[in-house]
Amino acid sequence: MNLIKIALCQMNVVDNKEKNIEKAIQMIKESKRQGADLAVLPEMFNCPYENEKFIEYAEELSDSKTLKEISNIAKEENIHVLAGSIPELERNNEKGTGSIYNTAVFFENNGKLVGKHRKMHLFDIDVKGKIYFKESDTLSAGNDFTVIKTNLATIGIGICYDIRFVELSRIMALNGAEILIFPGAFNLTTGPAHWQLLFRSRALDNQVYTIGVAPALDKDASYNSYGHSIAVNPWGEVIEELGFDEDLKTVKIDLDEIKRIREEIPVLKNRRTDLYGIKENKI
After folding, report:
1. Which of 103, 209, 251, 254 could form a disulfide with 231 if both were Cys (CB 3.0 to 4.6 A apart)?
2. Which residue has the higher pLDDT, 272 or 130?
3. CA–CA distance, 219 with 236 (Å, rounded to integer)
4. What gap in Å lies between CA 60 and CA 72, rounded to an integer?
5. Three-class SS of 61-104
6. Cβ–Cβ contacts within 10 Å for residue 264, how many?
7. What is the pLDDT of residues 142-196, one digit of tens each?
8. Rg of the chain, C-alpha, whole Å
9. Rounded CA gap, 181 and 186, in Å?
10. Is 120 part of any domain?
């Protein structure tokens, strides 16, 4: 068996960056106490999920208080950390203005930043009578695929809405990703309808593990996260799913299951690439 323990850190996110960082550190420490090799934080773990707050909380990666703290605790606790996402500011002129991205950052257990993912597909939706949100009012879209080779596994990273686009997950799987991780913040409309279905589908499509980590539900917030952080195996089975409240659960995954399932049902091998394919299949 080739086992990895992954902690799903479903934290409450409040309108206070210091408190959010403190909570993330507490959860990373608890992840280590539970024997986790990798702790995964939610999308926008240091910032309320609001366009105005993205602007207020945005940090440059090179001078990010949030990420310095996460790097330090990863090194101190000797644990890998996927810092779910933060609003990343990239200045593009001397006046200090710039673009803001929804960016996830991966740290090795020595605290070294080894990869980042900027959300590729911006969450612009209008479900009549239920929910309206337009990330593109403040955020810019990323353009890069993110597959990181670590000493734990090869990990593909997307963020929330990215999971709806089947091409992204397939490209990451074709480039060796064994685990697809999507920090996310589905809402009380899309969450019950699609959250579990999408994670099971992407796991089944690509015969990989899928992991989703969300903020806990805050009924008083302007945007209500569905929570329900999840882990799904390559057979499409849910092996862990949390509820609405703040919680932390550690899941064991066996990377050998990927090879076994792909031998039993060789979906990727049986693709008709003579008839169809994804042009962007090399990262």
Report:
1. 251
2. 272
3. 31
4. 17
5. HHHCHHHHHHHHHHHHHCCEEEEEEEEEEEECCCCCCEEEEEEE
6. 10
7. 999 999 999 999 999 999 999 999 999 999 999 999 999 999 999 999 999 999 9
8. 18
9. 14
10. yes
Residue 277 lies in a domain: no
Asked which of 32-41, 89-98, 108-117 is least confident by mean pLDDT, the reply is: 89-98
Look up the domain containing 114 and give its range: 3-264
Give CA–CA dist 176/171, Å, rounded.
9
DSSP readout, 2-38?
A: -EEEEEEEE----S-HHHHHHHHHHHHHHHHHTT-SE
pLDDT of res. 94: 56
Closest CA to 215 of 13, 4, 28, 76: 13
Listed residue (36, 1, 15, 20) closest to 231, CA to CA: 36
φ and ψ at residue 142, rounded to 5 degrees: -80, 165
Q: Which amino acid is at 243?
A: G
Instruction: Enter the tokens of residue 236.
Output: 């499409």
SS3 assignment, position 57: helix
The CATH code of the domain that includes 235 is 3.60.110.10
73: which 2 tokens?
């605790």
Rounded CA gap, 10 and 215, in Å? Answer: 5
Task: Say how many domains are in the chain.
Answer: 1
**If 0-12 CB within 10 Å is exposed, 13-18 middle and 19+ buried, where does residue 63 land?**
exposed
**What length is written for the chain?**
283
Catalytic (active-site) positions: 43, 119, 160
Q: What is the pLDDT of residues 185-229, one digit of tens each?
A: 999 999 999 999 999 999 999 999 999 999 999 999 989 999 999
Q: Is residue 275 part of a domain?
A: no
| The pair of three-digit structure tokens given for residue 136, joined into one six-digit string | 């593109």
pLDDT at 277: 86
DSSP string, 219-268: TTSSS-B----EEE-TTS-EEEE--SS-EEEEEEEETHHHHHHHHHS-TT
